[in-house]
Amino acid sequence: MTRPVIGVTAYVEPAGWAVWRDVPAVLVPQAYTRAVTAAGGRAVVLPPDDVDAHVVELLDGLLVAGGADVGPERYGQPPDPRTESRPDRDAGELTLLTAALAADLPVLGVCRGMQLLAVAAGGALHQHLPDVVGHDRHRPAPGRYGSHGVRFAPGSLAAAVMGEVDRVNSYHHQAVADPGRLTVTGWADDGVIEAVEDSGRRFVLGVQWHPENEPDPRPVTALVRAARSDALSPHPFPPAREPPARPVTPK
Protein backbone atom coordinates (compact mmCIF):
# COMPACT_ATOMS: atom_id res chain seq x y z
CA MET A 1 0.00 0.00 0.00
CA THR A 2 1.32 3.46 -0.91
CA ARG A 3 2.07 5.49 2.18
CA PRO A 4 0.20 8.80 2.50
CA VAL A 5 2.52 11.78 2.02
CA ILE A 6 2.50 14.09 5.07
CA GLY A 7 4.08 17.52 4.74
CA VAL A 8 5.82 18.65 7.93
CA THR A 9 6.60 22.36 8.21
CA ALA A 10 10.16 23.25 9.17
CA TYR A 11 12.23 26.06 10.65
CA VAL A 12 15.18 28.05 9.35
CA GLU A 13 17.59 28.41 12.27
CA PRO A 14 21.36 28.66 12.82
CA ALA A 15 22.73 25.15 13.25
CA GLY A 16 26.03 23.34 13.52
CA TRP A 17 27.32 19.94 12.35
CA ALA A 18 30.69 18.42 11.50
CA VAL A 19 33.00 21.42 10.85
CA TRP A 20 30.16 23.87 10.19
CA ARG A 21 28.89 26.32 12.84
CA ASP A 22 26.01 28.80 12.84
CA VAL A 23 24.92 27.91 9.32
CA PRO A 24 21.30 28.81 8.45
CA ALA A 25 19.62 25.41 8.12
CA VAL A 26 16.18 24.04 7.36
CA LEU A 27 15.36 21.74 10.26
CA VAL A 28 12.63 20.13 12.30
CA PRO A 29 13.00 17.76 15.28
CA GLN A 30 13.18 14.16 14.11
CA ALA A 31 10.41 13.28 16.56
CA TYR A 32 7.86 14.67 14.06
CA THR A 33 9.06 12.66 11.07
CA ARG A 34 9.61 9.57 13.22
CA ALA A 35 6.01 9.73 14.48
CA VAL A 36 4.68 10.11 10.92
CA THR A 37 6.76 7.14 9.73
CA ALA A 38 5.70 4.99 12.68
CA ALA A 39 2.04 5.75 11.85
CA GLY A 40 2.52 4.51 8.27
CA GLY A 41 3.03 7.86 6.53
CA ARG A 42 5.82 9.30 4.39
CA ALA A 43 7.11 12.54 5.92
CA VAL A 44 8.23 15.35 3.60
CA VAL A 45 9.90 18.35 5.25
CA LEU A 46 8.66 21.73 3.97
CA PRO A 47 10.87 24.82 4.48
CA PRO A 48 9.26 28.28 4.79
CA ASP A 49 8.11 29.40 1.32
CA ASP A 50 5.28 31.84 0.62
CA VAL A 51 5.71 32.11 -3.17
CA ASP A 52 2.91 29.61 -3.81
CA ALA A 53 1.23 26.57 -2.29
CA HIS A 54 1.30 24.19 -5.27
CA VAL A 55 3.07 21.57 -3.15
CA VAL A 56 -0.23 20.99 -1.35
CA GLU A 57 -1.44 19.21 -4.50
CA LEU A 58 1.22 16.54 -3.84
CA LEU A 59 0.33 16.02 -0.17
CA ASP A 60 -2.19 13.76 1.54
CA GLY A 61 -1.94 15.60 4.85
CA LEU A 62 -0.22 18.55 6.54
CA LEU A 63 1.43 18.72 9.97
CA VAL A 64 2.15 22.27 11.13
CA ALA A 65 4.96 21.89 13.65
CA GLY A 66 5.75 23.75 16.85
CA GLY A 67 8.43 26.39 17.29
CA ALA A 68 8.72 30.14 17.68
CA ASP A 69 5.82 32.49 18.40
CA VAL A 70 3.30 33.58 15.77
CA GLY A 71 3.80 37.25 14.95
CA PRO A 72 1.20 39.30 16.87
CA GLU A 73 0.65 41.58 13.86
CA ARG A 74 -1.14 38.56 12.36
CA TYR A 75 -3.91 38.98 14.93
CA GLY A 76 -3.84 42.75 15.39
CA GLN A 77 -1.79 43.13 18.58
CA PRO A 78 1.44 45.01 19.31
CA PRO A 79 4.32 42.68 20.21
CA ASP A 80 5.02 41.84 23.82
CA PRO A 81 8.77 42.17 24.62
CA ARG A 82 8.83 38.42 25.35
CA THR A 83 7.38 37.44 21.97
CA GLU A 84 9.92 35.92 19.56
CA SER A 85 8.40 35.51 16.11
CA ARG A 86 9.63 34.20 12.76
CA PRO A 87 7.95 36.19 9.94
CA ASP A 88 9.23 33.77 7.29
CA ARG A 89 7.52 30.85 9.01
CA ASP A 90 4.31 32.79 9.49
CA ALA A 91 4.16 33.73 5.81
CA GLY A 92 5.11 30.30 4.49
CA GLU A 93 2.91 28.29 6.83
CA LEU A 94 -0.13 30.50 6.39
CA THR A 95 0.26 30.11 2.62
CA LEU A 96 0.32 26.31 2.99
CA LEU A 97 -2.43 26.25 5.60
CA THR A 98 -4.80 28.38 3.54
CA ALA A 99 -4.38 26.10 0.53
CA ALA A 100 -4.65 22.91 2.60
CA LEU A 101 -7.89 24.06 4.23
CA ALA A 102 -9.33 25.10 0.87
CA ALA A 103 -8.56 21.62 -0.46
CA ASP A 104 -10.01 19.96 2.68
CA LEU A 105 -6.66 18.28 3.29
CA PRO A 106 -6.28 16.63 6.71
CA VAL A 107 -4.39 19.07 8.94
CA LEU A 108 -2.79 18.70 12.37
CA GLY A 109 -1.40 21.74 14.18
CA VAL A 110 1.02 21.09 17.05
CA CYS A 111 1.67 23.78 19.71
CA ARG A 112 2.58 26.81 17.56
CA GLY A 113 0.74 24.97 14.76
CA MET A 114 -2.48 25.00 16.78
CA GLN A 115 -2.01 28.69 17.52
CA LEU A 116 -1.50 29.37 13.81
CA LEU A 117 -4.70 27.46 13.02
CA ALA A 118 -6.58 29.74 15.42
CA VAL A 119 -5.03 32.89 13.95
CA ALA A 120 -5.86 31.70 10.41
CA ALA A 121 -9.46 31.25 11.61
CA GLY A 122 -9.65 34.85 12.81
CA GLY A 123 -8.65 34.21 16.41
CA ALA A 124 -5.99 35.65 18.72
CA LEU A 125 -3.39 34.54 21.26
CA HIS A 126 -2.26 35.23 24.80
CA GLN A 127 1.30 36.45 24.19
CA HIS A 128 2.64 35.42 27.60
CA LEU A 129 0.57 32.79 29.37
CA PRO A 130 2.01 33.21 32.89
CA ASP A 131 0.49 36.71 32.91
CA VAL A 132 -2.92 35.08 32.41
CA VAL A 133 -2.84 31.95 34.57
CA GLY A 134 -0.38 33.11 37.22
CA HIS A 135 2.15 30.26 36.90
CA ASP A 136 4.75 28.84 34.52
CA ARG A 137 3.85 25.14 34.66
CA HIS A 138 3.18 25.08 30.91
CA ARG A 139 6.88 25.85 30.32
CA PRO A 140 8.65 25.23 33.61
CA ALA A 141 12.22 25.84 32.38
CA PRO A 142 14.16 26.18 29.12
CA GLY A 143 14.25 22.80 27.39
CA ARG A 144 12.14 21.14 30.08
CA TYR A 145 8.60 19.89 29.47
CA GLY A 146 5.84 20.23 32.01
CA SER A 147 2.88 17.89 32.50
CA HIS A 148 -0.72 18.62 33.39
CA GLY A 149 -4.22 17.24 33.35
CA VAL A 150 -6.44 17.60 30.30
CA ARG A 151 -10.09 17.01 29.43
CA PHE A 152 -11.89 16.80 26.10
CA ALA A 153 -15.43 17.60 24.99
CA PRO A 154 -17.49 14.39 24.69
CA GLY A 155 -18.22 13.49 21.07
CA SER A 156 -15.43 15.67 19.70
CA LEU A 157 -12.66 14.68 17.31
CA ALA A 158 -10.14 15.36 20.09
CA ALA A 159 -11.96 12.97 22.43
CA ALA A 160 -12.19 10.29 19.74
CA VAL A 161 -8.47 10.58 19.03
CA MET A 162 -7.27 10.75 22.63
CA GLY A 163 -9.59 8.21 24.26
CA GLU A 164 -9.00 7.97 28.00
CA VAL A 165 -5.82 10.09 28.00
CA ASP A 166 -6.06 12.60 30.86
CA ARG A 167 -2.51 14.01 31.02
CA VAL A 168 -0.29 15.56 28.35
CA ASN A 169 3.11 17.20 28.16
CA SER A 170 3.54 20.94 27.85
CA TYR A 171 6.12 23.42 26.55
CA HIS A 172 4.73 26.82 25.57
CA HIS A 173 4.45 30.37 26.89
CA GLN A 174 1.68 31.46 24.52
CA ALA A 175 -1.83 30.04 24.10
CA VAL A 176 -5.04 30.49 22.18
CA ALA A 177 -7.16 33.28 23.66
CA ASP A 178 -9.80 33.37 20.90
CA PRO A 179 -10.24 30.34 18.58
CA GLY A 180 -11.94 32.37 15.88
CA ARG A 181 -14.12 30.10 13.74
CA LEU A 182 -12.74 26.93 15.34
CA THR A 183 -14.38 24.99 18.16
CA VAL A 184 -12.55 24.51 21.45
CA THR A 185 -12.69 20.83 22.45
CA GLY A 186 -9.87 20.42 24.97
CA TRP A 187 -8.76 22.22 28.14
CA ALA A 188 -5.90 21.94 30.59
CA ASP A 189 -6.72 21.62 34.26
CA ASP A 190 -6.25 25.39 34.67
CA GLY A 191 -8.63 26.19 31.79
CA VAL A 192 -6.00 26.87 29.09
CA ILE A 193 -7.21 25.81 25.63
CA GLU A 194 -5.54 22.52 24.67
CA ALA A 195 -7.44 21.42 21.54
CA VAL A 196 -9.33 23.11 18.72
CA GLU A 197 -10.99 21.65 15.65
CA ASP A 198 -13.23 22.33 12.67
CA SER A 199 -16.07 19.80 12.55
CA GLY A 200 -17.10 21.07 9.11
CA ARG A 201 -13.94 19.63 7.55
CA ARG A 202 -12.67 16.10 7.11
CA PHE A 203 -9.87 16.39 9.68
CA VAL A 204 -8.64 19.66 11.18
CA LEU A 205 -7.25 19.33 14.68
CA GLY A 206 -4.96 21.54 16.75
CA VAL A 207 -3.30 20.36 19.96
CA GLN A 208 -1.33 22.57 22.33
CA TRP A 209 0.93 19.81 23.61
CA HIS A 210 3.66 17.87 21.72
CA PRO A 211 2.28 14.42 20.77
CA GLU A 212 5.39 13.65 18.71
CA ASN A 213 7.28 13.40 22.02
CA GLU A 214 4.75 11.08 23.65
CA PRO A 215 5.17 7.27 23.64
CA ASP A 216 1.72 7.05 22.01
CA PRO A 217 1.49 9.99 19.53
CA ARG A 218 -2.23 9.55 18.86
CA PRO A 219 -2.91 12.86 17.03
CA VAL A 220 -0.13 12.11 14.51
CA THR A 221 -1.46 8.60 14.01
CA ALA A 222 -4.96 10.01 13.49
CA LEU A 223 -3.65 12.49 10.89
CA VAL A 224 -2.00 9.69 8.91
CA ARG A 225 -5.16 7.60 9.17
CA ALA A 226 -7.27 10.49 7.84
CA ALA A 227 -4.79 11.01 5.00
CA ARG A 228 -4.95 7.42 3.75
CA SER A 229 -6.57 7.34 0.33
CA ASP A 230 -8.58 4.25 1.26
CA ALA A 231 -9.98 5.86 4.43
CA LEU A 232 -11.18 9.20 3.09
CA SER A 233 -14.70 10.08 4.14
CA PRO A 234 -16.51 13.25 5.20
CA HIS A 235 -15.92 12.42 8.89
CA PRO A 236 -13.57 9.55 9.81
CA PHE A 237 -14.21 10.42 13.47
CA PRO A 238 -17.41 11.50 15.25
CA PRO A 239 -18.37 15.15 14.68
CA ALA A 240 -17.67 17.65 17.43
CA ARG A 241 -20.36 19.01 19.72
CA GLU A 242 -20.18 22.54 21.09
CA PRO A 243 -18.43 22.32 24.50
CA PRO A 244 -19.52 24.25 27.57
CA ALA A 245 -17.92 27.67 27.94
CA ARG A 246 -14.97 27.75 30.34
CA PRO A 247 -12.95 30.90 29.72
CA VAL A 248 -9.51 31.59 31.13
CA THR A 249 -9.69 34.67 33.32
CA PRO A 250 -6.61 36.88 33.85
CA LYS A 251 -5.14 36.91 37.34
UniProtKB/TrEMBL annotation:
Record InterPro entries: Class_I_gatase-like, Peptidase_C26, PuuD-like
GO BP annotation list: polyamine catabolic process
Pro residues bias spans: 235-251
Keyword Cell division: no
The organism's taxonomic lineage, starting at the top: Bacteria, Bacillati, Actinomycetota, Actinomycetes, Micromonosporales
MF (Gene Ontology): gamma-glutamyl-gamma-aminobutyrate hydrolase activity; transferase activity
UniProt KW keywords: Glutamine amidotransferase, Transferase
Name of this protein: Putative glutamine amidotransferase
Domain of life, per lineage: Bacteria
PROSITE patterns in the cross-refs: GATASE_TYPE_1
Region (Disordered): 69-89, 227-251
One Gene Ontology cellular component: cytosol
Record-linked Pfam families: Peptidase_C26 (PF07722)
